[in-house]
From TrEMBL:
InterPro entries attached to this UniProt entry: PAPS_reduct_dom, Rossmann-like_a/b/a_fold
All residue ranges annotated as the Phosphoadenosine phosphosulphate reductase domain in the record: 10-199
Pfam families reported for this sequence: PAPS_reduct
A single GO molecular function term of this UniProt record: catalytic activity
Protein name: Phosphoadenosine phosphosulfate reductase family protein
Amino acid sequence: MALGASAPVFIGVSGGRDSQALAYRVCAHLDDIGHPGSRFLVHADLGRVEWRDSLPVCERLAQRLGIELVVVRRTAGDMMDRWLSRWSGNVARYTKLECVKLILPWSTAAQRFCTAELKSQVIAREMRRRFPVGDVVSAVGIRREESAKRARMPAWKQDERTTRKRGQGHTWNPILGWRRGDVNDYVRNRGDELHEAYRLYGSTRVSCAFCVLGSEHDLRASTNCAGNHAIYREMVALEAASTFSFQSHRWLGDVAPDLLDAGLRARLQEAKERAQARVSAESRLPEHLLFVKGWPTVMPTPSEAALIAEVRRDVAAAVGLQVAHTDRDSVLQRYRDLMAAAAAKAGTEAPPSHTFEGSQT
């Protein structure tokens, strides 16, 4: 087993109570089994979307445990930078008809690139930078109680992100069976205190200050911390600019409108109206015309191309964009070009374009 072979162990810490309990428990277990290998705490810093107390909690943990804290960051920018760049990229794609519907800037429950790109990937790279050869172990503080998906997680599994030809990567979930009360009691018994998000503001969890999966209660709790006000306003400004609410069922700007100036409140209200126009326009698109994995699958009829062009004009007007391919013939040509490119990429011939008798409308 990897631990018996002295594999280095990286203990993921966010500043939340689960990661505190994880760090104390893993280190105690490694001591108990006489593990002589290296051990580290590793924290993925998400930048200005982080609670101000998260890194200090991790630093205190490292000091109390007497082990190194490794702090990793995405080199291309923090979480807010990722949302902003995603929005810019999605606008560019829509402008060039590389997608039929305008794509939101935010992470979602189905697309948690926030976790993958700013946590898992950067941690895995750092682990293998430090130990390019041999087994490595990533200890994670998830619990079955938290969700149905986590309830199905194994205690130990291979980690493809850190597995190499000359060494296996492993994910270890040591506190899977713990309940929230167990976590609180364990941290308290170790003489430590919880993150300020719990102690001072009543949040039930610690992740980003404003999480796409957060409850209304936790979002409101975050707005009570003055250290979160600047990023709150920046995120609401992106809601207003994009016409996409932060959560599918909730506008972040509605959580604490008193923190917004009159101008931003007005822009947010206008964005809600423009969002309705965008959604209404895109609802007219038949599903078979939508792209699959970034590519069209069928040639639209001339009338369908005219509909796509009309929807694009309406969306551009609603969101305030300058877009290409806003007439029938341009849309048809764009689809031909994209389908030919998709076929070439797949190494096949492009399917023949449909012909329609009397198709002049």
